[in-house]
Amino acid sequence: MYIKIFAKIIHKSSLMLVFAILILTPNQAITQSHAYFINIGNGIERINTDGTNREVIIAPDLAIAQGIGLDLANQKLYWTDWVANKIQRSNLDGSQVETIISSGLDLPEGIEIDTQNNKIYWVDSGTKKIQRANLDGTQIEDLIVFNNINFDALALDLYANKMYWTEWGNTAPFGKVSRANLDGSQLEELVVIFDVVLKGIGLDLANGKMYWTDCSIGKIQRANLDGSAIEDIVTVGINSPNALDLDLLNGKIYWTDFSRRTIKRANLNGSNQEDVLSIDVEGLQDIVLNINELEPPSATIEQSWGHSFYPNPTNDFLQIEGIGSRATVTLFDPNGRKLLSQNEGRLNVMGLSPGVYTVKINETDGLVFHLRFIKK
């Protein structure tokens, strides 16, 4: 049996809501989280985040993928094909494959999805460009053009209007993490390291951190979002880390190790390292996570609680009443990624893009509550 919380409207005039505990039967349990990864020779695969229930989503005769991205709002999987030089997408189960960009590409690699603004972003090591387009592949834009640069991965901070990426040059002896505005303006070099190949990148916006892999030396590092306070996170049990993604809901980092032929995970500080998958994975490239913590409630109400939040929808502030003085309030974006955590019930949401957001409340007595609200 599982316990789940949802919010029920009790005052339509003020749109105040009260929490209710739901008792769920096993078939109503929390939706399983997945990791999607590229295994050259097998195609694009999907497993549960604990490594179970492995399945091929996209067969290798459909694509030789390099980068993958998830559009959870529209239930779509996107990938770059660095052999056929095209960008494709499908449903999350791999059905209904379609090509959305088939010209102007030369070794496209990392790809990210911005469902709030209906855009895809990608890096192309052959054309030396960072580009974007609509979700259907129309209206392609060149954002940044370089010389002698190999791109690998990128990550988006939609709330600060920034994109981050890793790069290394054919002739330049440096690996870099850089960022710019989403339109390519205000370019900044944040991290410059001599004689390395930096590849995967992920952002922990709630804690102001960015993570990346160093494939040449064999380690995972992190720093503040401005590039300061660089620290080694994983240095043992790792050889050629390629891509990474962050499970901020559960405090985990996942990565692919090309030479060790494993998918691994650890706590965000690098502790408690463990194998997720180590069988028949000989060409590991990108990995992305679909972390599901909530699902729409479908059980009966057993008990009500005196919490409320308003207004909903909101444009500027969300007020949560009835929480304990030491309760932790955590805000997640529409894709389930943690944005901030605080110990007060008034949330400033003015900087958020429109969409449906989730708030998790951890009370000191161990009870956990969830609510969803609409940002106008």
How would you characterize this protein structure?
- This protein is mainly beta.
- The protein contains no helices and 34 strands.
- The chain has a four-stranded antiparallel sheet, with no helix packed on it.
- Strand 18 (198-204) and strand 19 form a beta hairpin.
- The model is unreliable at 1-30 and 294-305 (pLDDT under 50).
Strand order of the largest sheet: 5-4-3-26
Silhouette? globular
Main beta sheet: strand number and arrangement?
4 strands, antiparallel
Share in helix: under 10%
Decide which structural class fits the backbone. Answer: mainly beta
Helix tally equals: 0
Low-confidence stretches: 1-30, 294-305
List how many beta strands DSSP finds: 34
- Overall pLDDT confidence: 84
Q: Roughly how many Å is the radius of gyration?
A: 21 Å
User: What is the end-to-end distance?
Assistant: 36 Å
Strand content: over 45%
What are the SSEs and their pairings?
Elements: E1 2-11, E2 16-24, E3 34-39, E4 43-48, E5 55-58, E6 65-71, E7 76-81, E8 86-91, E9 98-101, E10 108-114, E11 119-124, E12 129-134, E13 141-145, E14 150-157, E15 162-168, E16 174-181, E17 188-194, E18 198-204, E19 209-214, E20 219-224, E21 231-234, E22 241-247, E23 252-257, E24 262-267, E25 274-277, E26 284-290, E27 301-305, E28 308-310, E29 317-321, E30 328-332, E31 338-342, E32 346-348, E33 355-362, E34 368-375
Antiparallel strand pairs: 1-2, 2-27, 3-4, 3-26, 4-5, 6-7, 7-8, 8-9, 10-11, 11-12, 12-13, 14-15, 15-16, 16-17, 18-19, 19-20, 20-21, 22-23, 23-24, 24-25, 28-29, 29-32, 30-31, 30-33, 33-34
